[in-house]
């Protein structure tokens, strides 16, 4: 039996041998976009918040989009200390999206750059029970543990190809239920990321695929009937 690769976060076209959550920015949410062709996440990214007014508009669009059955998650959304976007606006946008996640019962795919403490604090303050998936994780094992302890999952991308990276070192020590894999906006096949992850964790590719399909079903509460899943 051939199992699908799960690509939890991508900005590119989904490969035929994969099941993807394609990222849609709130600004690109139109009635006629290709939302019906596959799973997607929709969110307001901290890089693209201009001012209060555009934020409000995007949040309204987002609230409409999340009711679509193919919308599996909010995001990417989060906090970024290296972007020029006003910090207060970023926090506001993120908080609003936490509330949309709770209202819609859908997880959030998190973008976090140098704002780990703030993300952790919000996670604890909000007492939210919906999963947060920290995408493109490349931080310490200690941070990984703290996030997982509060109910977050981690997702790893091309950083793991460098086995000296923090991402690679953390990945090989996690329990199978705590992580996902992704290509983000990189021109790399999801199969390559899986191959490296299987090698790092010393398991077969099929075993890894089965584990991540299990995580996908559990975290996004979907029952897939296709026998390749
Ligand atoms: Zn991304």
Features:
single chain; alpha/beta; 7 helices; 8 strands; globular
3D structure, described in words:
It is built from 7 helices and 8 strands. The protein has an 8-stranded parallel beta sheet with strand order 1-2-3-4-5-6-7-8, with helices on both faces. The chain has one domain: Metal-dependent hydrolases (TIM Barrel), CATH 3.20.20.140. Helix 6 packs across helix 7. It is an alpha/beta fold and 229 residues long. The site of zinc ion (ZN) has 6 residues, from loops.
| Number of discrete domains | 1
For the largest beta-sheet, the strand count, sense and barrel status come to: 8 strands, parallel
CATH class placement: Alpha Beta
Content-based structural category: alpha/beta
Shape estimate: globular
Number of strands: 8
The CATH superfamily title: Metal-dependent hydrolases
- Uncertain residue segments: none
Radius of gyration: 17 Å
List the helices and strands and how they pair.
Elements: E1 5-10, E2 18-25, E3 40-43, H1 52-65, E4 71-80, H2 87-104, E5 108-113, H3 116-126, E6 132-134, H4 141-149, E7 152-156, H5 166-171, E8 179-181, H6 190-201, H7 205-219
Offer a quick outline of the entry:
By secondary structure, the chain is an alpha/beta fold. Helices cover 37% and strands 20% of the residues.
